[in-house]
Design a protein that fits this description.
2 strands; two-stranded parallel sheet; 4 helices
């Protein structure tokens, strides 16, 4: 495992999107945390960072409510949610309520 893999992946996503904006990028999210403790936390933070670099899609556990809330929130903060409508709708449906 290379401790620069996250950075390399994000730089690659950014470079591909700059050179070829029509190309779609997909990341196997959990690969970044293989062999590390607190994998969910690493995956969640990496998801936000990769989305900010232009990642189009990720292979994730769609039953992970917190991850789905993170995706929704990041989408809103990245300006991809018109008037924050999807975020507000998800909040009203209780999508951001988690067990502690």
């Amino acid at each position: 495992t290379n401790d620069k893999n996250g950075l390399i992946t994000m730089e690659t996503i950014r470079s591909v999107k700059e050179a070829h904006p029509e190309v779609k990028t997909v990341t196997g999210l959990s690969n970044i945390s293989f062999g590390l403790p607190e994998r969910k936390l690493i995956n969640q933070v990496f998801m936000i960072l990769a989305m900010g670099c232009g990642m189009d899609a990720a292979i994730i556990d769609s039953t992970d409510k917190r991850m789905m809330a993170i995706v929704k929130t990041a989408t809103t903060l990245l300006g991809e949610d018109n008037f924050c409508g999807e975020y507000i709708q998800a909040y009203r449906k209780g999508k951001f309520t988690f067990e502690k």
